[in-house]
Amino acid sequence: MRPTMNVAVVKYNAGNIFSVLGALKRLGVCPTLTDDAETLLRADRVLFPGQGEASHAMSYLRERGLDRVIRDLKAPMLGICIGQQLMCRHSEEGNTECLGLFDTDVRLFHPQRHEDKVPHMGWNSLSFTRDGHRLDDGGLFKGLKEEDYVYFVHSYYVPLCPETAAVTDFVQPFSAALHKDNFWATQFHPEKSGRVGEQILKNFLEL
Amino acid sequence: MLAKRIIPCLDVKDGQTVKGTNFVNLRQAGDPVELGRAYSEAGADELVFLDITASHEGRKTFTDMVTRVAETLSIPFTVGGGIGSVDDVDRMLSAGADKVSVNSAALRRPELIDEIASRFGSQVIVCAIDAKETDGRWETYINGGRIPFGKGLMEWAREAQERGAGEILFTSMNHDGVKAGFANEALAMLSENLSIPIIASGGAGSMEHFRDVFKTGHADAALAASVFHFGEIGVQELKTYLRQEGICVR
Fold first, then answer.
1. Which domains does chain B have, with CATH numbers?
2. A152 to chain B: nearest residue by CA?
3. Does residue A112 belong to any structural domain of this protein?
4. What is the CATH number of the domain that holds A34?
5. Is A194 within 8 Å of B75 when comparing Cβ atoms?
6. Is residue A196 part of a domain?
7. Which phi and psi angles does B14 have, rounded to 5°?
8. What's this model's pTM, rounded to 2 decimal places?
């Protein structure tokens, strides 16, 4: 990656971005936390992290016109956790219309067994194949091994769909990551996933 | 498959870890950030930093340490010790912590859990419970296990879950420091009756104890301090052992 790379992190009302900024700094880039349309549209990479509640986050983005800005982005963008969910069509959380960048909806986990506790919290493994075929991750998971572990904290999930880029099994197999054109998203937190997460963020910067 | 978590716990006083320097050849074994990094590299899944400082200056030092930990580590960590208000939680999360643990303050004023949950979400609240079994009854204690509180373990754990706690960190005072294994019976009872993850604490002395706490105690995570700090058990060798025993670990 270029040392002068212009990396923007979308500033909005969803949660703790401290660790995302920290993780990027450890990789040697100096991220800008911003809600300015010009800055976001000019950036070489955009990260859309967050924890929080979908309907409040979407209202915040719409009030500031950030929903349109995000849809207009041409640079690679990576949504994380609630970021991934907001990039889908609709979320069951607060019955929320989302950004629609990915052609799928977000659902609430309904555990069938007592051992499956919601939120899905902790380290779970990634699979990069489905029905025997390697999923198209656009290079985001370069260098990772099948069954590498990453850190999740979430109660809503994205079902398997044509845009699924990685699969994790909890209650049922679901989309741990999505990819379409210049948009990538992970349900897990790469910034909290140790070495594996660092590799993923590094790959994203080098796409 | 969701992995069982191994969580080293570090007690911090005036910005320094208070026990354990045999862990690794660290130049500054007393520095919680260095120790945390070493654990992270050894494969720890999460860390807990407990502030055991009493003074106001100590609290400030602890907050600064939390920021340094967040800048350095790439695994989740919980902070606890003296969390008594939503403002305390805000300060810790703003400093970069992923979760906070509440203990005595929540027993004294249970609404604290509701307040934290509605402001920051359940995923940030670890409800720490210290309890002791006497004549078959588990009773909760406050002030670091010094004062009996009167509420029963199961009653309080259920209430904490209903109020919005995201996880229960249960320390058995009967087992803590004895190194003869975790309180597996009580843990299994908690696990059966609650729908949130249970972190087991108190009693780790051998690798078999960790196997048993997952297999018999049905814990979702196991926390320990001295066995890790004094280098009696390495996180990496523990995970290799647990994997051989058929337990899913990272």
1. 5-244 (3.20.20.70)
2. B2
3. yes
4. 3.40.50.880
5. yes
6. yes
7. 50, 45
8. 0.94
Which residue's structure tokens are 């197999």?
A173
Residues 6+ apart with CB under 8 A from B135: none
In a domain, A163, yes or no: yes
pLDDT digits (tens, 9 = 90+) for B123-156: 999 999 999 999 999 999 999 888 999 899 999 9
Determine whether the interchain pair A151/B75 forms a contact, defined as Cβ–Cβ distance below 8 Å. yes
Q: Residue A185: CB partners within 8 Å, gap ≥ 6?
A: A48, A78, A79, A80, A83, A84, A87, A102, A177, A178, A179
Parent domain of A158:
7-206
Q: What is the pLDDT of residues A59-114, one digit of tens each?
A: 999 999 999 999 999 999 999 999 999 999 999 999 999 999 999 999 999 998 88
The verdict on whether A189 is a catalytic residue reads: yes
Query: Does residue A57 fall inside a structural domain?
Result: yes
pLDDT of residue A114: 86
Tracing tokens 């604290």 back to the chain, one arrives at B112
Q: Which residues of chain B have pLDDT under 70?
A: 19-29
At A69, give phi and psi (nearest 5°).
Answer: -60, -45
Chain B interface, Cβ < 8 Å to A: 1-3, 5, 40, 45, 70-71, 74-76, 93-96, 98, 121-123, 166-167, 192, 195-197, 218, 220-221, 250
Q: How many domains does chain A have?
A: 1
